[in-house]
TrEMBL record, chain A:
Cofactor note: Binds 1 [3Fe-4S] cluster. Binds 1 [2Fe-2S] cluster.
Name this protein carries in UniProt: Succinate dehydrogenase iron-sulfur subunit
Cofactor: [3Fe-4S] cluster; [2Fe-2S] cluster; [4Fe-4S] cluster
Gene3D superfamilies, sorted: 3.10.20.30, Alpha-helical ferredoxin (1.10.1060.10)
Pathway, per record: Carbohydrate metabolism; tricarboxylic acid cycle
Domain 2Fe-2S ferredoxin-type: 19-113
PROSITE patterns: 2FE2S_FER_2, 4FE4S_FER_1, 4FE4S_FER_2
Any Gene Ontology biological process: tricarboxylic acid cycle
Sorted UniProt keywords: 2Fe-2S, 3Fe-4S, 4Fe-4S, Iron, Iron-sulfur, Metal-binding, Oxidoreductase, Tricarboxylic acid cycle
TrEMBL record, chain B:
Gene3D superfamilies, A to Z: Fumarate reductase/succinate dehydrogenase, transmembrane subunit
Record-given protein name: Succinate dehydrogenase hydrophobic membrane anchor subunit
GO cellular component annotations of the record: membrane
Subcellular location per the Swiss-Prot or TrEMBL entry: Membrane
Gene Ontology MF annotations: metal ion binding
Annotated transmembrane regions: 53-76, 96-116, 136-155
Keywords tagged on the record: Heme, Iron, Membrane, Metal-binding, Transmembrane, Transmembrane helix
Species this protein is from: Streptomyces luteolifulvus
Principal location class: membrane
InterPro entries: SQR/QFR_C/D, SuccDH_FuR_B_TM-su
Amino acid sequence: MATPVLDKVEAEAAESPYITVTFRIRRFNPEVSADAVWEDFHLEIDPKERVLDGLHKIKWDLDGTLTFRRSCAHGICGSDAMRINGKNRLACKTLIKDINPEKPITVEPIKGLTVLKDLVVDMEPFFQAYRDVMPFLITKDTNEPTRERLQSSEDRERFDDTTKCILCAACTSSCPVFWNDGQYFGPAAIVNAHRFIFDSRDEAAEQRLEILNDRDGVWRCRTTFNCTDACPRGIEVTKAIAEVKKALITRRY
Amino acid sequence: MSTTETPAPGIGPVEGESLYTVDNPAPLIEAPRQRTKKTPKSTRGNFEMAAWLFMRLSGIVLVVLVIGHLLIQLVLDGGVSKIGFAFVAGRWASPFWQVWDLLMLWLAMLHGANGLRTVINDYAERADTRLWLKGLLYTATVFTILLGTLVIFTFDPNIR
């Protein structure tokens, strides 16, 4: 760094960027205890690093039994959604400096799904709801990949927002209706249904709407906007749900 | 734990005392959306949609009805001090106010009951609790609606 004020820069560089951060992690191991407990870890970390880096430091250097999911670690695979400081976020997209490292950083598994160990939950109910809305292209005549299916850019734009979903479950596990009995389809499934309902190439919109007209479908949405707040991809989830409701009301009448 | 089997090299013993063994396996927690024999085949129908629409539409109508009602009863022409048996009797002499009050009674009761029904569905976790709370709710709703309707239609201004 060739700056005129070299002295000052050198003085700053000499200071360590590391700060001491407390990670307060919700630990659960069914083989040891039936109860989950909070455990504190203190570590030296650069505040510009991510929460995931902190978890890695703990797992690699302090306690190898800490269990969590992560795959790509760059906000695309959707494996590491967790409840950080009481909000659902991706650990790999949350910088430590952004969540007040002066206080302990709480890390919990996402709510509403059965915890298997530490931060790992059983995602099966979530994916069951996803499968229920048939998240694949359905056409009347032929589903075979015969030729390219063309679409205007406006038609593509119609459902662009909901194609961004990475199935991390941050939205569904932030939904208070899903917390109750887990029967509600959940925002993620509705978002992925929306992606096909409003796709001009797809011809099973009627079927998908009928599935979401279920007792536990879109009508259980209370528009609390928790899902929109939680989405790490910035999808306007509540708006997508409202569009599905509107389509259900206006499709026949 | 008697370790007769030798673990593969590189794998240490499991830390901590295990609560469960092969003969005493950990309890299986059933996944919430799992399909079982008890799962109803189809819970689809337009009732939830109708209820959702009803809430929106009745809400709009109720804003007019209730604000009008409050204005007439409490604000305009002398305010709350003018309300008495004679005032109510005078208003109910006109079919217009009878229909107004009847509509307000029905819409407000059904709107409120449906709102509470969704609250019960969202918050009561056990099926038994739901059944009892909803039973109580429907009984109270039907009773109030019937009583109110009866009074509006059979109101006698010369009652002694």
